[in-house]
Amino acid sequence: MTLPLLYRIGIAIGLGLLVGLQRQRATSRVAGIRTFPLVCLLGVVSATLAGSFGGWVVAAGVLGLAALTVMANVIRLSEHHDVDSGITTEVAVLVMFLIGAVLATDYIIEAVVAGAAVTLLLHWKAPLHAFAERMGSDDFSALMQLSVIALIILPILPNREFGPYRVLNPFEIWLMVVLIVGISMAGYVAFKLFGQKRGALAAGALGGLISSTATAVSYAQRTAKNPDRSGAAAFVITLASTVVFLRVLVEVAIVAPELLGATALPLVAMMLIMLVISGALYGSAVRTDPAELRDEEPPSGLRSAIVFGLLYAAILFAVAWAEDRSGWAGLYAVAAVSGLTDVDAITLSTAQLMKGDGLDPSIGWRVILIGSLANLLFKGGVVAVLGHRMLRARITVAFAAAVVGGGAILFFWPG
Questions:
Q1: Which among 143, 174, 228, 252 is most buried, taking Cβ atoms within 10 Å?
Q2: How far apart are CA 165 and CA 320, in angstroms?
Q3: How many C-beta neighbours within 10 Å does residue 85 have?
Q4: How far apart are CA 91 and CA 145, in angstroms?
Q5: Alpha helices in 154-301 (DSSP H)
């Protein structure tokens, strides 16, 4: 983005005021509402001069700021003022200087986003510290495993196709693993932050993000000992299954964004049907039952990631084989079988084929919907085996209505 220098200076002052206001309210003694705009302005000026005099101007600015912050802390110590042992404000000063320098280049949007991120990180001190304190050893281990999955394994995998039908790309397969683990981890983090005290709505929504099948198992088992919670459990299980369709839409948007317009409407229609059914289940039993989620296991285990990767590769190959040998009828059969245990794998494999191999979107969304309906039937079976008869009755009616609605979409949706 090309902007005149005066505009860049204005953006720098605005970002500096934003961060400076936050530091001023936090009673920082190092820099506040006047200092941060000056620091960001210095970055813009330094980087602009570097175009004529060389990069040493920016380096000198960094060293000068570092020396000033050290000197300010030394003076406060000598005057017997309390000095915060943290260095957050000092680091923020240097970062805002460099953001000002970036504003002198063509990365205007990136610099603005970085400045906003600095403000949020400074402002969220209390919740971030509280989250870190609540994080147990299992949570930290899960975070490290996610780092291994995304930052170590993914970059070393070959990014080219192997095998029959040329659909098995190790990099892309593992990228889908990272995507699914990341979505589940985001739901788990949201559960840790908000879910335990937000009742049935949060339980259903976050349960769908983490694992709708695990949510169905958990609540079905709960009603076996507490039949009076069947109403709340039915609502939570149905809402979690509704969120699955939102999750499916997000996955398609990430993998094949150019095809989202051609596939989204029937899936949104199915999600709306599920929302109506969920709303019908929301009653006095839900309002009087906190229906909180049980403690969830972190979803980023390396073993489960490998299993999902193998499952995804197998379904990717099966879908390509079915399309080649049996046409759309074979695709639907694969979707019905694979969707029994996992909707993500059939969704991602179908999205990849729609993007790369020209699978017609009108067939692609039907494959995804069939897989989703099969998964719905599987969860209904889980509830029938594990849950109380009161829960079975509610889920049977709710899921039967959903399957009928989904079948109507499959057969009567145009295109």
A1: 252
A2: 7
A3: 5
A4: 29
A5: 154-156, 170-193, 199-210, 212-225, 230-255, 260-281, 284-287
Q: Give me 167's structure tokens.
A: 């659909």
CA 101, CA 410: separation in Å to the nearest integer? 55
Model pLDDT for residues 49-99, shown as the tens digit of each residue: 888 888 888 888 888 888 887 787 777 667 655 555 567 778 888 888 999
Residues 6+ apart with CB under 8 A from 344: 180, 247, 251, 308, 312
CA distance 406 to 401: 9
Rg (C-alpha) for the chain, rounded Å, is: 27
**Cα separation of 76 and 82, whole Å?**
7
What residues are paired with 168 via a beta bridge? 162
For 162, phi then psi, to 5°, come to -130, 165
Helix 230-255 with 199-210: angle, nearest 10 deg: 40
Q: How far is CA 72 from the centre of its chain?
A: 41
The predicted structure's pLDDT at residue 396: 93
CA of residue 393 relative to chain centroid, distance: 34
Residue 84 phi, psi dihedral angles, 5° rounding: -60, 135
If we measure between CA atoms, which residue out of 308, 316, 307 comes closest to residue 346? Answer: 316
